[in-house]
Amino acid sequence: MAGKPLVQKRKNRRASRYDREEIERRKKFKKMEIAEQKRRKARHRERRGERFYDKTTFVGLDFYKKFFSFSDEEIAGKKILDAGAGTGQFAVDAEGVGARVVSLSPAYKSTRYGKMLRGKYATTAGIVEKLPYRNESFDIAFARRLIPTLVKGIDRYRGIKELLRVVKKGGWIGIGPFVGPRSVQDYRILRIKDFFRNTGFRFTVNNVVVPTPTYMEGGSRGKEEIDRRGKKQRQTYLIIQNTGNIARLEEKIAEPEKRKSVRMQNPFNN
To answer: Measured at the alpha carbon of residue 202, what is the angle toward residues 70 and 135, in degrees to the nearest 5?
Structure first.
């Protein structure tokens, strides 16, 4: 049949009112489901952190004195930062001899240990690479087990720089333990000393022998059972005197970032 070609009209595919309500209902349900998943993950991280601390034998003042070679009289009246404080046992013991301790850990936002310490002792939820304190706010700062075990790479040097920044001139910081074969421990300390070359900071190395696994490594066995095993481990702790140039140290930390930025901008490196 001659004439105009038949043109099939496009159907209007707009959703009906019922369909739109169904879509909104599903969106709302999806948001609720995502929120519930986030709550579950947060609770899982909280329980995992609590299980770690539950398995850990508390490390208090007596162990710190052995690790970093100081006495009760030397910290009496001092303001001390304990980064990566964990259960906060050091703060509890050190307050008893007249020290003022601020405990820092990112886990204090959720774990029950942070809630237990909050109100009784000074606590801060934060990270050592970016300390929320003013310059020269403390006399002494510790980052036991946090540096070098948990904070690695360039963040390790950022953490050390931040600890030195918040410590007064003439004060000192303590980091460690450096574990493993003796050659590995010496090499890791040598790398840190080499990075701090020409900055004016003074280093003291303290070698101690402790039961293994160490009390803060999350071992499930208690102190008595570890001692009964009779195994010992050599650990090295590093004490850094704040006698140097923080500005020069910041420049050295920024140099690797600048080199990385130049490599990324260079088209011949792609």
So the answer is: 80
For residues 208 and 198, what is the distance between their CA atoms, to the nearest angstrom? 28
Angle at 64 between CA 60 and CA 68, to 5 degrees: 175
Give the confidence band of 25 by pLDDT, cuts at 50, 70, 90.
Answer: confident
The number of beta carbons lying within 10 Å of the beta carbon of residue 183 is 8
List domains and CATH numbers for the chain: 53-255 (3.40.50.150)
| Single-letter amino acid, residue 157 | Y
Of 71, 67, 66, nearest in space to 94 by CA: 71
Look at residues 119, 124, 151, 149 and name the one whose alpha carbon lies nearest to residue 138. Answer: 124
Closest CA to 123 of 90, 145, 160: 90
Query: Does residue 63 contact residue 93 with C-beta atoms inside 8 Å?
Result: no
- Residue 114's contacts (CB-CB under 8 Å, 6 or more residues apart) are 105, 107, 108, 123, 125
Q: How far is CA 135 from CA 215, 246, 256, in A?
A: 32, 11, 24
> Terminal CA-to-CA distance of the chain, rounded, Å?
65
Q: For 187-197, how does the pLDDT look when each residue is reduced to its tens digit (9 = 90+)? A: 999 999 999 98
Task: Fill in the amino acid letter for 35.
Answer: A
- The DSSP code for 168 is E
C-alpha pair distances (Å), 65 with each of 59, 68, 94, 110: 11, 5, 10, 29
Query: Residues 106-155: pLDDT tens digits?
Result: 877 766 666 667 677 888 989 999 999 999 999 999 999 889 888 888 89
Structure token pair of residue 231: 């195994």
Q: How far apart are CA 115 and CA 34, in angstroms?
A: 27
Q: Are strands 232-241 and 167-178 parallel, antiparallel or unpaired?
A: antiparallel
The single-letter DSSP state of residue 149 is I
